[in-house]
Amino acid sequence: MELYLVRHGKFRLDGGDDPPLDEIGEKQAELTGKRLSNTPEIPSLEGSNLMGFDEIYVSPLLRALQTAEIICSILGKQFKVWYLLAEKTDYTYFKGLSVSEIKIMFQHYYLNGKEKNIFNAQCEILGNFKSDKSDTTKDDCYGDNLVFNEWWKRIGNGDKESYERACWVENKIMELLNQGKNKVLMIGHGTFWGILIGRILRCPSPTFKFSQNNCCITQFEILPDSIKLRYLNRIDHIPPNYIT
């Protein structure tokens, strides 16, 4: 299975707790979408099969959602929002987009006639994550109750909590492999991707750092008995004046 990790595009520094992309970030996302597709003017990544993505998972933070919106419009694909892909940051006083708001803003990208609520469709994944909060149950995955709608209340910002999240994401990756998925894309954040990459590579410490530019691409080849890092922080699809 091919696993692609993409960091979000450049965002506005004056955008508050959950900032949107700026103009450069939007251009970065467009170029990344073209690179991930078979658009002639930007050659596809070597070593990649020509099949489309089986699954696309996205962080619920606005900059990641907007990056996914642009990329998926080019790929002609829908994406699934997964709160475990959120950035490692302090969510104590955070206020972002609730599940209800995301449904309204991005429904044309993840809703279709057969799957009317992608959040409910992802409840099995959400329910597998056990936080330190004793009141977190699988029922939180359904409906728009307070804990689930304000998803950031379930995210710890410490190294331990973030590493635990990375372990659950890795488990999901292996589950997708076992399901026969060939190509999976995840769009998220630099710091958390660094933690996940360290986990996948079995780095001896969860504090290993992997620098990543905006809209870089990292690719793994995931097999039942081996994992190969094909490239890390690839940005050759972005012109120098757009690299951040």
Write a short abstract of this structure.
Helices cover 35% and strands 14% of the residues. The chain is an alpha/beta fold. Helix 1 crosses helix 2 (62-75).
Describe the structure.
By secondary structure, the protein is an alpha/beta fold. It has one domain (2-242): Phosphoglycerate mutase-like (Rossmann fold). The chain has 8 helices and 6 strands, in the order βαβαβαααααβαββ. A 6-stranded mixed sheet has the order 3-2-4-1-5-6. A hairpin with a 2-residue loop joins β5 and β6. α1 (23-36) packs across α2 and α7 packs across α8 (190-200). The longest helix is centred in the last third of the chain and has 20 residues, at 159-178. It is globular, with a radius of gyration of 17 Å. The two termini are 29 Å apart. Mean pLDDT is 80; it is low at 110-147.
Which consecutive residue ranges, at least 5 long each, have pLDDT under 50?
110-147
Shape descriptor reads globular
User: What is the CATH architecture annotation?
Assistant: 3-Layer(aba) Sandwich
CATH superfamily: Phosphoglycerate mutase-like
CATH topology, what is it called? Rossmann fold
Helix content: 25-40%
For the record, give the distance between the C-alpha atoms at the N and C termini, rounded to a whole number: 29 Å
Tally of helical runs: 8
Determine the structural class based on helices, strands and strand pairing.
alpha/beta
The CATH first-level class comes to Alpha Beta
Largest sheet: 6 strands, mixed
Q: Please, what is the average pLDDT? A: 80
The number of distinct structural domains comes to 1
In spatial order, strands of the major sheet run 3-2-4-1-5-6
Quantity of strands, as a count? 6
Spell out the helices and strands N to C: EHEHEHHHHHEHEE
Give the DSSP E fraction (strand runs of 2 or more residues): 5-15%
Radius of gyration: 17 Å
